[in-house]
């Protein structure tokens, strides 16, 4: 269960969608934040902006906090996290992707020893073209 929350948090905080936005065409007139939209208009929805919108989360969305999905944000708005899209257009491989992430994380935890890297060092360098 905790590993699932790690993966969910990783996907939400790293903004992992391969497609970072979706385009939808309005089927009827509507209004959004005071802007009138007409039937047939195209609307671009940026996943990053939705993922980081603090109105949808109880815990700061900019922080990597896997436990959020166990506690405060367990019942988050289903539209607040669109890592794999949504509805019938959602990514067909999302279950496989989650399984692969869980497998990789599990294997890393089994076979790799992680140590504190110590004080952060900033190494300056020159870039050339």
TrEMBL record:
Pfam families: p450 (PF00067). InterPro entries: Cyt_P450 (IPR001128), Cyt_P450_B (IPR002397), Cyt_P450_CS (IPR017972), Cyt_P450_sf (IPR036396), Cytochrome_P450_3A (IPR050705). CDD domains: cytochrome_P450. One of its GO terms (molecular function) is oxidoreductase activity, acting on paired donors, with incorporation or reduction of molecular oxygen. Keywords: Heme, Iron, Metal-binding, Monooxygenase, Oxidoreductase. Signal peptide: none annotated. PANTHER family: CYTOCHROME P450 FAMILY 3, FATTY-ACID PEROXYGENASE. Belongs to the cytochrome P450 family. Cytochromes P450 are a group of heme-thiolate monooxygenases. They oxidize a variety of structurally unrelated compounds, including steroids, fatty acids, and xenobiotics. This is Cytochrome P450. It comes from Didymodactylos carnosus. The lineage of its organism: Eukaryota, Metazoa, Spiralia, Gnathifera, Rotifera.
